Amino acid sequence: VQLQASGGGLVQAGGSLRLSCAASGRTFSMYHMGWFRQAPGKQRESIAAITWSGGSTDYADSVKGRFTISRDNAKNTVYLQMNSLKPEDTAVYYCAAKYMFGTGTYDGWGQGTQVTVSS
Asked: For the chain, what is the mean pLDDT?
């Protein structure tokens, strides 16, 4: 599956952004999806995940209560609504896909979109 993330940008602390990740090439509904981020000098961090149906989600403690992951299988798109943004949310954000009958690892990655939160 090919993934294209978009929606990043520059926002002030306390603001909101909505990231989108459009998928193509395979049956989107057969993939669990996740959002990751990587800040300069830091390891990539898993921040949100959603099952193939959207029936279950999971969040890192660092974003819980502020970020919401969702998906629209009819549009082959997964979203990340980010509210109450903080400067420490500044990072490159990536979406990733995990085939529901695969090895349990994310094996499809988007190109990343930059999110910068100013104080």
From this structure: 95
The answer to whether the CB of 107 falls within 8 A of the CB of 1 is no
Kindly list the distances between the CA atom of residue 31 and the CA atoms of 20, 41, 48, 99, in Å, as whole numbers in the listed order: 16, 30, 14, 4
Whole-number Å distance between alpha carbons of 7 and 80 = 9
pLDDT of residue 96: 96
DSSP state for residue 40 in the 8-state scheme? T
Strand duo 2-6 + 17-24: pairing: antiparallel
The token pair at 70 is 């969702």
Both tokens of residue 59? 């969040």
